[in-house]
Amino acid sequence: MGFEIDGHTFAVWAGLSRKRKKNSSAGFLKGLLKALSIHQCFTNEVPPTVTGSATSPPSVTPVPPERGNYNVTNANGTVCLLARMGLQLNISYLSTSHGKTVQELMNLHPNITKTSGSCEPDNAKLVLTENNITLTLIFTLNSTLNKYHLSGVELLAALPNMSKTLFVSNTSLNYWVGTLGHSYMCRKEQTLNVTQDFSLNTFELQVQPFGVNGDFGSAEECALDEDDMLIPIIVGAALAVLVLIVILAYLIGRNRSHAGYQTI
Q: Within this chain, do residues 28 and 158 fall inside the same structural domain, yes or no?
């Protein structure tokens, strides 16, 4: 009896023990799920901290430059060179703050840019100065062919972040070829590669360095503008040919249908 009681007691205690273990396992599982949920919540809300070497922020491309009028007058006050364009400088230089070579795009602003230059029978210069930047465009005229072109570009820049003053020059260029008495025009953006450290972007360009008679002469357009005009011409011609083919096919089919009938 006593043994049965002890056995019964033992069995009850074992049952209680199993129940407690079951409840303990369930509680542990619930706690683990809750902890995982909290961890996931913090993982989603708080981004991980990334360590590493600092890098320079990406350069922001400026908006297209404002189009300005840059004219040169000779000694008697007569305009001898006409230029209307937007100008953007693409410069590479050693930066003191970053300790490495950086590339920067800069727009020239017509309202603060000073214009000067000179006009000779077979060469002309347009000098544009804005703060610590001086841009010189050199034009050459071939009097035998009555053709002119942009033969040289020079840049002198002393920006605050430069380790030293930058001077680049190239006098063997062959851009903006035009005829004497006519202007050269290019509405599309052009990139003139001057040196490894400098290129010049132009927007809505029209220039006439020789044979100026008060205003721009008739414009000779660049290949980029001509290509833009050529595309719609080609598309229109293709559509015209397609319409002609449809009409011819209709007429041929109509004649064949009439030929199939015979009079009685």
A: no
Q: Is the pLDDT of residue 26 over 90?
A: no
Alpha-carbon separation of residue 102 from 57, 113, 129, 199 (angstroms): 11, 24, 23, 14
The shares of helix, strand and coil residues in the chain, as percent rounded to the nearest 5, are 30, 40, 30
Q: CATH number of the domain at 175, please.
A: 2.40.160.110
Report which of 213, 210, 128 is spatially closest to residue 177, judged by C-alpha positions.
210
| 175, part of any domain | yes
CA distance 71 to 125: 10
Nearest Cα neighbor of 90 from 200, 194, 169, 203 is 200
Q: 145: domain range?
A: 68-225
More confident residue, 147 or 232: 147
Verify that 88 and 195 share a domain, yes or no: yes
**In a domain? residue 139:** yes
pLDDT top residue among 240 and 145: 145
Residue 178, burial from CB neighbour count under 10 angstroms (0-12, 13-18, 19+): buried
* Same domain assignment for residues 207 and 79: yes
Structural contact between residues 198 and 89, judged by C-beta atoms closer than 8 angstroms = yes
Closest CA to 151 of 116, 123, 127, 187: 123
Band of pLDDT at residue 126, cut at 50, 70 and 90 = very high
**11 pLDDT more than 60:** no
- Claim to verify: residue 24 and residue 94 sit in the same structural domain: no
Cα separation, 174 vs 192, whole angstroms? 10
Number of independent structural domains in the chain:
2
Q: Is 92 within the bounds of a domain?
A: yes
Look up residue 125 and give its amino acid.
Answer: K
- pLDDT reported for residue 249: 79
